[in-house]
Amino acid sequence: MNSPNIRIIICGAFGQMGKMLIRLVNQQEDMVLAGAVDAPNHPDLGQDAGENAGVGRLGVPVVSDLTKVIEEGDVVIEFSAPVPTVEHLRQVVEANRKLGQKAMVIGTTGSSEEQLQEISDLAQQVPCLMSPNMSLGVNVLLKAVHLVAKALGDDYDVEVIEAHHNIKKDAPSGTAIRIAEVLAEALDRDLQQTGVYGREGIVGARTKKEIGIHAIRGGDIVGDHTILFAGTGERLEVTHRAHSRESFASGAIRAARWVVNAPNGLHDISQVLGL
After folding, report:
1. Catalytic pick from 164, 214, 225, 240?
2. What are the pLDDT digits (tens) for 150-165?
3. Of these residues, 42, 146, 168, 209, which one is catalytic?
4. pLDDT digits (tens, 9 = 90+) for 221-259
5. What whole-number percentage of the chain has pLDDT above 90?
6. Is there a catalytic annotation at residue 168?
7. In 3-state terms, what secondary structure has residue 129?
8. Is the pLDDT of residue 132 over 90?
9. How many CB atoms lie within 10 A of CB 262?
């Protein structure tokens, strides 16, 4: 890199995560905010990103087109929606091909299988880190859940319960899905066959191999995830509760610092944390 600072572009700048990221980038000694992007129809386009995030004027207006600012950045941090995320990754790949030294961190959730596959394919051409949850605690939890599931095996029923604020658009959360994937791997199950997303009506007795996944929405809950292992005469619960979005944003900052020097390919936050 030619610049002593890592130049960051935030996509989803008007969102709660975007504003948190702008504030955190502004606090880093080795980073500078180089660009801010949000949806073309947002009424506040053109507003200074720093003023919008509550840190004062930074001289970085929020624009609707990543290609207008991509030359100014080293790492794009994406917390928007599935469709623009894929399009932005295409643009980062093209900029990396032409200019070099571009990378991306994706925290967007709710992508379809087709979108995830396209992200995986595109990421072979650029350093890209994607994780449904950037927090250190959640990624330690994933390791712990794998260990617990391996130890308890099929003798314990497994359920995943997640809770988020009432404006979250996707359900279940990307983190809950990732937890279920880890459980399925540890228990040697096919999640497509054994995943049960909520229950209603006369569904009959619970089958042995089920992995239940349940979503709760209400208030301003930042993010709770509980994994219930229920056996005969006892149960074990493993829970992570996020008290603020700062844990997610801090992880994304750490990921950006790591991915800028990573090889091409799709990476995971566990690599950053050494887990």
Report:
1. 164
2. 999 999 999 999 999 9
3. 168
4. 999 999 999 999 999 999 999 999 898 999 999 999 999
5. 91
6. yes
7. strand
8. no
9. 16
119, HSE (Cβ side, Cα atoms, 13 Å): 27
Chain centroid, CA 184 distance in Å:
20
Superfamily, domain 136-242:
Dihydrodipicolinate Reductase; domain 2 (3.30.360.10)
* Residue 257, both tokens: 């610092």
Q: Quick check: 218 pLDDT over 80?
A: yes
Is position 164 annotated as part of the catalytic site?
yes
Question: Could you tell me the two tokens for 174?
Answer: 């990307």
Domain ranges of the chain: 6-130, 136-242
Q: Is domain 6-130 classified as CATH 3.40.50.1980?
A: no
